[in-house]
Design brief:
The chain is α/β, with parallel strands linked by helices. Helices cover 50% and strands 15% of the residues. It contains eleven helices and ten strands. The strands form two sheets. Strands 1-2-3-5-7-10 form a six-stranded mixed beta sheet, sandwiched between helices. A hairpin with a 2-residue loop joins strand 1 and strand 2. Helix 1 packs parallel to helix 3 and helix 5 crosses helix 6. The longest helix has 34 residues. The N and C termini lie far apart (50 Å).
């Protein structure tokens, strides 16, 4: 089991539980995440959702082997189902982040209502270095949160983001000692049990209303571009280099694309 779901005392706790692979997410895991979020939305007894990883790592992004076998190229892909389930979740979602949060491990946080991380956590969105583009509406939400220039620096270069920078960029709410992150997130989730659930849902709806349509549009636009880039020579070279543990040669990739085009003509 790679996703563990526990519902207790009005809180749905969703754990990324694949520490041997640094909680890299597979298509099956995305489906489980989407189902867990949908179940929490339907359950009137659930007041809040807490998403967390392992004590040493939150999420290393996509499992590259699985990702290449089952790429997210349609709106019915498990990963897209998960994105929509999280983006449209009516109930408060809290993320507890320890260790690394890479790729979608970072972009999913933009859709959580509260994010608490360890003071030594690290974040990154290395899409460009993989020959790809941002996903999960991060091309819209990161600039909104951090400002255009900071977002450009982090998305174009894919540079690591320290916990302190993440706080400055308004990706997270608070830094917590590593051993206390999950318990602090659970403490905050328990506070929602004392609040009127309809008022909570309506307040969240109003907070998100101004950008909901734009978020969905950004997700759809990113998916189209992401799917196209996934078939490009650049992405093929970047992903091959990642799997082969070598430095990518994008000049060779471009030369191959030119030669291929010339042959077709």
């Amino acid at each position: 089991m790679t996703i563990r779901v526990q519902v207790q005392d009005g809180i749905t706790r969703i754990e990324l539980a694949r520490p041997e692979r640094k909680n890299a997410i597979t298509a099956e895991m995305y489906g489980q995440l989407a189902d867990a979020l949908a179940a929490a939305a339907r359950d009137d007894a659930v007041h809040a959702v807490v998403v967390h990883g392992s004590p040493t790592v939150f999420c290393a992004g996509n499992d590259i082997h699985d990702f290449l076998e089952r790429p997210p190229v349609s709106g019915q892909s498990p990963s897209v189902r998960f994105m929509r389930a999280l983006a449209d979740q009516e109930k408060p979602v809290i993320a507890a982040v320890n260790g690394a949060a890479v790729g979608i491990g970072t972009t999913m946080l933009m859709h959580c209502d509260l994010v608490y991380c360890a003071d030594d956590a690290m974040f990154s969105m290395p899409f460009v270095s993989l020959g790809l583009c941002p996903e999960f509406a991060s091309s819209m939400l990161v600039p909104l949160s951090a400002g255009y220039h900071k977002a450009a620096e982090k998305l174009l270069f894919g540079e690591p983001i320290s916990a302190e920078e993440a706080l400055e960029m308004r990706i997270v709410n608070r830094l917590v000692p590593p051993g206390e992150v999950l318990e602090y997130a659970m403490h905050q989730a328990r506070r929602f049990r004392a609040l009127p659930p309809v008022a909570l849902r309506e307040t969240k709806r109003l907070l998100k209303a101004g950008q909901r349509a734009a978020v969905h549009l950004a997700m759809e636009s990113e998916l189209v571009t992401f799917s196209r880039l996934l078939g490009s020579p650049e992405s093929h070279e970047a992903l091959s280099a990642f799997l082969e543990r070598r430095k990518p040669d994008f000049a060779r990739a471009q030369s191959g694309a030119v030669n291929s085009t010339s042959t077709k003509e």
